[in-house]
Batch of 3 targets.
Target 1
Amino acid sequence: MSTLLLAQATHRLLKLLPPEEAHSVGLRLLRYARPSRLGPPDSLALKTWLGELQPPIGLAAGFDKTGACVAELASLGFGYIVAGSVTLRPRSGNRKPRIVRRRGEALVNAMGLPNPGVEAFSTNLVGTAPSAGVPVVASIAGSNPEEILRCYERLRGVVSAVEVNLSSPSLEDAQRIWSEPEFKILVDWLDSSKWCPLALKIPPLAREDLRKLVLRAVEVWADNGMDCITAVNTLPVKEERLSTGFGGLSGRPLNPYMVETLKEVRRIVDGGCAINAVGGIFTGDDAIRAFRLGASTVQIYTALAYRGPLAARKIVTEMSRALARMGAHRLEEILP
């Protein structure tokens, strides 16, 4: 059976399972039936904050929470992998059910950042990251600057870059760390210990009380010479089917929030900081739009749940066709 037919059959079966179980089974199957790696077209090669990527499409944080599967996931056609988010100490997460599907190709999750803790996570990546063949980025999360810095230091030399996640709905006291005095402490500490490129993952600009704090943090991040902003994380919504009664919305309904945030971030950083666009990117046209709005890479997650394990390869094909329709030979020709 061809890779495409096998992927389609597997995807149909996984959609019959609850989403968290489908995710777990899919990862296990990938270890036994890893697709052969295909080289994307040269037209999609792009210089980014992670070096030259081909393609500049990453797997967003949350898919591989342990750092044990980055090589298998890279074989799905990604130009880089974000593993985690990981915290200083292990977390079991919230009780089930903690992820559900929604109409309109969306997911709502209240996973609660389950992860093995940065010590085990780092050990896993030492064994897996070198065989990925693409840059591996570690997503780290915490509720205060000290936790973030300790995670960052533990990953020294293990990964290509680090994405700092201060925007998960599962983080306790998350709004406090966005306050300017607290955030400046974090940036100063990271700057003094910096050993790799750093990205800041921000929430959608949906809450007015958080909007000003986040945009000011973006300004501080860029002004201090940090490398990248990842926009956006999930959108907090009510969801009675979850054990917590609420969770983070991802998928197509998140796309307008991502687009708005991308525009605002680009206005603030003005080319002084790269931007990763994530949120409702399902197709090549979605990706092209994000690049034209100023993104230097895009990330996907929920698209895998709805388009199947070869979603990244499909997006690559669609992007190539979109460039041809536009009369462009290379992706960099359409960048702002």
Target 2
Amino acid sequence: MAIILGIESSCDDTSASICKDGKIKSNIIANQEVHAKFGGVVPELASRAHQQNIIPVVDTAIKEADIDKNDISAVAFTKGPGLLGSLLVGVSFAKSFALARQIPLIEINHMQAHILAHFIDEPKPRFPFICLTVSGGHTQIVLVKDYFHMEILGQTLDDAAGEAFDKSAKILGLPYPGGPLIDKYAQKGNPNAFSFPEPRIKELDFSFSGLKTAILYRIQDEVKKDPDFIPNHLHDLCASIQHRIVTILLNKLQKAVLKYQIKDVAVAGGVSANSGLREALLELGEERSWKVFIPKFEYCTDNAAMIAMAGYYKFLKKDFVSQQVSPLARMPIV
């Protein structure tokens, strides 16, 4: 029997999960509301909040899984990428917990874990499959050949899709985090009300910096003519912005599927919780005869269940690390 404690602390969510023989038994997440008034995550405040949250979160995960802490076989933790101060809290706790019980440590790449969230519940994709990973810090198309054998086919050359959502929300005067608010308001708007450009980037790479600038200039120009332009057109603006970001993502994904002739297609990362992206991907999958895999909402955003699941597959390989392990703010997926 293998019982894995998963620890996730890469940004501003403190999370702990218990995986028992490949089944998630608990997944506890503590959010940090302190960042809202600053319009974004403040790294120092995030790391302090992790210190306050991590013991209660781990304790709750163990109790909810109905196990004893001494039953745990190994501790899996996010090594990177992420905010260094936040990662340090999770790594330090994992090392201490493992050392006290003389059990193995398992380091996990946060972005690989997002992809492996697809193996928490049925249906599970078959290897090889193509995964679009989209978050606040990353936008990648990944060829997944095995649990830990992945190849990046394309990635953003500048900003990530999640950042494009959040920065667009800020331009519209929406509070942080703005991405989910754009999604909410878009559902009542017309996606074709406003036109925004699609960047011309070769192959399978992405770029969102130019789109952000185009959105900013368009809205500034309209506000000069009508100071009430944003409140009068908020739903249509959100729908149009979301539509453009989603079409950029899916146009590249279509190219990858055509090029590699793989029709098992998945999406992962925080932006995969976006309803516009989920619906458009399902529609495209039906049109193109793809097998589409989308995780449950709770496994899209940062969570420890994906860390524990990735840890379980590494545990089976006895892929452990020493107590000398350190977090990495930047950590490539391959």
Target 3
Amino acid sequence: MKISELFSYLNDDRVRRIIAQVSLAGFVVFCFWWLITNTSQNLDQLNKTIGFDFLFQNAGFQIAPTLGTWLFSYEVGSSTYWDIYLIGIINTLLIAVLGIFAATIIGFLIGIMRLSNNLIFRSFATVYIEVLRNIPLLLQLFFWYFTVLRSLPDKRGKIDLIPGAISVNLEGLFLPYPIWHSGAGFAGIVLLVATIATMFMRRKSKNRQLLTGHPLPIWRITATIFAAAILMILVSVGIPMEWSQPTFIETGSVIKRGFDKTTAILVIPEMLAVWFALTLYTAAFIAENVRSGILAVSKGQAEAASSLGLSSGQTLRLVVIPQALRVIVPPLTSQYLNLTKNSSLAVAIAYPELVSIFAGTAMNQVGKEIEMFFMMMMVYLTFSLLTSAFMNWFNHRSKLAER
């Protein structure tokens, strides 16, 4: 090939793009090869090997009672590090789901309040947002744990939030748990059928509104369906469940005084502190997203809705918020991802989430840093990708249809 022909090929944009892409791919492969080779050499010098056999070894440390320890019946000395990994995932997922749910509700309320004409509501929302989003999350976590929850009565005392049902002290929050009777299965089937019937009627109401402009009285229909379902359950099997009553022992030896943990659900204070901090901190950012989304909707939309006789609440719920979602949802996804990843800060107060028990205590005992950090990164990556996929689907459903 002549030099002139070679230069003619190099002058072709397509050839240059192919060469650039091949060069970049080769550089990436070289970087991975160098990283793997360097890591292997360092491990050989330390007499370490890579493997996941440690997951089936018995774990020898205690974990605070949580949903994860209850689901997997964790016992010191008999449960494995794989159980600890799953417990960390469950506890992380629990705090993320609860935090997303609560932060979304609070964030929407605060964001709407900041646009209110009521001076008290608007001032409260402004102070809430400006204070909470400008204080580091770790400091808020310490505030709830060390300042608020650590000031509660010790195990021999209590504060009744709902007398005889919900109480709190230094050990945590004590909640009643459901006690199911023999007719619980039948009751569940009846309620499931009622829910399906309600969803069918809501769809029928929406179709009728599109055709005639007159929806069905869906709230009255829903109330009637569930009232009939509950009446059927009561007549057929009676009350299918009851709630336990947390037992507080006030007399006897000092050691035995306090709540009987077999009669209640215990939510440890570490979980409460993490939930409060993540929820209130993230809600401040969600509130600003909601405010910007509402302001992005033209005022003419609200004026048109008002001219049709809709109330301010109906205008906000039926006209403004649906159009504002196209602006709210993308940054809202980022806040959900941040909340999930920020749950790793719970290691500072020893809440048994994934980083605390798997990258903390378990890794100190096993010493498999590469494998354990890889497993944790895969968990957070999976949570983030699933959240992004769901929010992208929701964003596609809520976006305005082009005409």
